[in-house]
Specification:
Elements: H1 17-26, H2 28-42, H3 48-61, H4 66-81, H5 90-94, H6 97-110, H7 116-132, H8 139-153, H9 156-171, H10 185-191, H11 198-201, H12 203-209, H13 219-230, E1 256-257, E2 261-262, H14 275-288, E3 295-296, H15 300-307, E4 329-330, E5 334-338, E6 348-352, E7 368-373, E8 376-379, E9 391-393, E10 396-398, H16 400-405, E11 413-415, E12 427-432, E13 437-444, E14 450-459, E15 468-477, E16 484-488, E17 496-499, E18 503-507, E19 526-531, E20 537-545, E21 553-562, E22 568-578, E23 586-592, E24 595-602, E25 605-611, E26 618-620, E27 623-635, E28 638-651, E29 657-670, E30 677-691, E31 697-700, E32 703-704, E33 707-711, E34 714-729
Parallel strand pairs: 2-3
Antiparallel strand pairs: 1-2, 4-5, 5-6, 6-7, 7-8, 9-10, 11-16, 12-13, 13-14, 14-15, 15-22, 16-21, 17-18, 18-19, 19-22, 20-21, 23-24, 24-25, 25-27, 26-27, 27-28, 28-29, 29-30, 30-34, 31-32, 31-34, 33-34
């Protein structure tokens, strides 16, 4: 029976067939997909996804030979779909669900070529397996298949009921405002890119194809795509370990076989969601997967996503020449500070701070950090080896409880040695990016018995010297007796003590006779951890890392304890990456009154980084300041730039450079820019007096603002609430 035009089935529309066939004639990419589908179809039996996906597409594009494609689809139904067993576990329900996904699409295509008895039998098998899929756990796969089956059967009422549940289930996998995944970076990129999770990760595309236009524009899913390809991974394409991330080898944001055949379409179809997601995906494909000219597997679902409908006439192609490395970005639940020059060896530091929407795969990692640089993972969180799996290597055991439920397994902060009581924090509450010093603040009040502000300043590679990160922790405890514990997990087996209670050095390498960590370069990357604020004590402990893919190793980690004064502690740590061509700076502990921190020496550059409670005035040589965080740079003795979270900074004698504010602000200023004095400011709405030779007016976001008072070398203005670019200028 030949179906009426536009009525192949209830999912696939025959009015698209001629359009799809024309694309296979005019486009090299679509022609390659057709050829791949026919080649795979002619290979006979194989993986369910390949047999059903390839034969269904070949049926449409090579209709002259459709009888053999129908025969192959029927054979797979009778030998696999009929006999497959569905269980209650992830491996027996969530994993095989992708086979049912390919089955329902294939059956929808050939349904009118089957006699009614055979069709009814196939539908009964499909229904039985679909309804056996687990719901209430790994929700999206079970509800997605029910939804597609009901659409196939034309049951609109049950379809809408299942759609409601699918949308709820899928929303658990991203934060609604920014897309960050609460499940962890590795779990996120694998599940949303794996061919074995097609029913979950590709159903939104099928829904869009059928006319439910709410997925490609969903801010959470759009953000998720940008997060996955730009920020869940380092600049060389491998994951930063948060949540249930198995390891950097096993979980990747691509699914590729034979070097260049792209199985799952998502890394090449990201443009359906946003230009940024697409450009970041192309970077990961080219620089991470090493694929410059890949071929997308000839599956019906892949072709459908890339071609779209004839009505829309918006076919999608990909070109790794469009690749762009993601720049620094602040999400509500995640922050990433990245070198501002595109390179797989760029420095990268991120922080996770979820405001809500947690799930099973979320770990206790509020305000946790992860770090990469020079082509390697430098600082990692616990990871994951599977549900309830303890891991033992070289006599060291990391229990599942420690990995999954103990915040000590993460690069975070605790109070009184107690693990976090909650997986959520208050999010990334302020910051700015786009200049030589970048900054963000994460806030935590539910996870610990007190409050914790974790501030990170990225001193970008600039002025001819190397980049590094400064971490400033501001803690208030609920009780006077509690101390504060800061934990650091370098991605290395051995933590070398260069100076007790002060300076530690990690070489990212495989120790003799060991298997891990997984390395990606021959750069001989290193990480120097410098405790600028003196701790009360330091312990070096051991755990186990990266077991899943055969790179497991026993690893040292740093556990630093700090006393409180009046229930408060202010702790500064410098994290300085290096490799065989980038030497870490020379670090010296410094104490100025109530301020502690570090001087960082690189050639003729000297940086000063200080921390305090922010309530007292401090001075250091020709600088005076008041703030929680102070960072300033001098080149051959001349002030270059400064960052302050506070209310005062003045440098020099006579005509000083700096500012004074009525209330605390976060401010970065470049004092030697060719555009004059300029920077970024975060204000709650306060008056600020800027100091500089001859200055007379101020621009915020390129617009001149009202001046309250002008003197020969200062100008006072009201900075409204918000984050702004500013310039301090002279009248010509």
């Amino acid at each position: 029976m030949i179906p009426f035009q536009g009525f192949s089935g209830n999912i696939i529309d025959t009015t698209d067939y001629s359009y799809w066939r024309q694309l296979a004639k005019t486009s090299e990419m679509f022609r390659a997909m057709k050829a791949n589908a026919i080649t795979v179809a002619n290979q006979g039996d194989g993986e369910t996804r390949d047999v059903l996906g390839a034969n269904a597409l070949a049926y449409i594009l090579d209709s002259a030979n459709k009888s053999k494609y129908i025969h192959a689809i029927k054979s797979k139904f009778e030998t696999r779909i009929r006999t497959m067993k569905i269980g209650n576990g992830a491996a027996s329900s969530s994993v095989p669900s992708h086979e049912l996904f390919y089955a329902v699409l294939a059956l929808d295509v050939i349904r009118y070529d089957l006699n009614s008895v055979v069709l009814k039998e196939y539908e009964s098998w499909l229904e039985a397996k679909t309804m056996a899929l687990v719901i209430g756990k790994w929700d999206p796969h079970g509800w997605a298949m029910r939804m597609l089956y009901y659409k196939y059967m034309g049951d609109e009422v049950k379809f809408q009921e299942a759609k409601k549940e699918f949308d709820i289930g899928i929303a658990e996998h991203y934060m609604p405002n920014d897309g960050v995944s609460p499940a962890g970076n590795g779990y996120c990129v694998q599940r949303w890119n794996s061919i074995e999770r097609a029913v979950k990760n590709t159903t939104p595309d099928i829904m869009e194809y059928m006319g439910y236009h709410e997925y490609y524009t969903n801010p959470g899913i759009v953000g998720l795509k940008e997060f996955m390809y730009g920020y869940a991974v380092a600049p060389f394409g491998r994951i930063l370990l948060y949540g249930d991330s198995r390891d950097t080898e096993a979980q990747k944001p691509w699914d590729i076989e034979d070097g260049a055949i792209i199985l799952s379409p998502h890394i090449v179809s990201a443009a359906r969601y946003s230009p940024e997601a697409y450009k970041y995906a192309m970077w990961v494909l080219r620089e991470g997967a090493g694929v410059s000219e890949g071929v997308l597997k000839g599956h019906l679902s892949n072709y459908l996503i890339m071609a779209g409908t004839a009505k829309n006439n918006n076919p999608l192609e990909f070109n790794t020449g469009d690749a762009v490395m993601a720049p620094s970005r602040l999400f509500e639940n995640y922050a990433a500070l990245i070198t501002n020059e595109e390179s797989t060896e760029a420095l990268y530091m991120s922080m996770l701070n979820l405001k809500g929407n947690t799930e099973y795969h979320t770990n206790y990692e509020t305000n946790a950090l992860a770090m990469a640089g020079y082509g390697e993972i430098l600082l990692r969180n616990a990871g994951y080896d599977g549900p309830n799996n303890d891991v033992t290597i070289d006599g060291v055991t990391a229990t599942f409880n420690f990995i999954h439920s103990n915040s000590e397994s993460a690069n975070t902060l605790m109070i009184g040695g107690k693990r976090h009581a909650s997986k959520v924090g208050d999010g990334i509450i302020e910051g700015f990016v786009g200049q030589d010093m970048e900054y963000f603040r994460g806030s935590s009040s539910d996870a610990i018995a007190g409050t914790h502000f974790r501030d990170v300043v990225f001193v970008q590679p600039s002025n001819g010297v190397n980049g590094y990160y400064i971490v400033m922790d501001h803690v208030t405890t609920d009780t006077t007796k509690d101390n504060v514990n800061v934990v650091w997990h370098p991605n290395a087996a051995t933590l070398n003590t260069l100076k007790d209670d002060t300076k530690y050095f990690s070489e990212i390498k495989i120790e003799k006779g060991k298997k891990g960590p997984r390395l990606y370069t021959e750069n001989e990357a290193t990480l120097t951890t410098f405790l600028g604020t003196p701790p009360a004590s330091v312990k070096i402990k051991k755990t186990v890392n990266q077991a899943r893919s055969g790179y497991g190793y026993a690893a040292d980690y740093l556990y630093a304890n700090y006393n409180t004064v009046n229930k408060q502690a202010n702790i500064l740590t410098v994290l300085f990456p290096g490799d065989n061509t980038h030497k870490p700076g020379d670090l010296k502990r410094i104490a100025v009154g109530e301020y502690t921190g570090s001087e960082i020496f690189q050639e003729n550059i000297v940086d000063v980084a200080l921390i305090s409670g922010g309530t007292t005035l401090g001075t250091n040589k020709t600088e005076s300041f008041q703030g929680e965080n102070i960072v300033y740079r001098k080149l051959a003795g001349k002030l270059v730039s400064y960052f302050v979270k506070g209310s005062l900074f003045k440098s020099g004698v006579g005509n000083q450079i700096g500012f004074k504010s009525d209330d605390s602000v976060a401010l970065y200023m470049n004092t030697v820019s060719s555009n004059g004095i300029s920077g970024k400011i975060v204000s709650s709405g306060t008056h600020v007096t800027f100091y500089g030779s001859g200055i007379s007016f101020v621009k915020l976001d390129d617009k001149e603002i009202t001046v309250d008072h002008v003197e020969p070398n200062s100008v006072r203005v009201k900075i409204p609430e918000g984050t702004f670019k500013f310039e301090i200028l002279k009248r010509l």
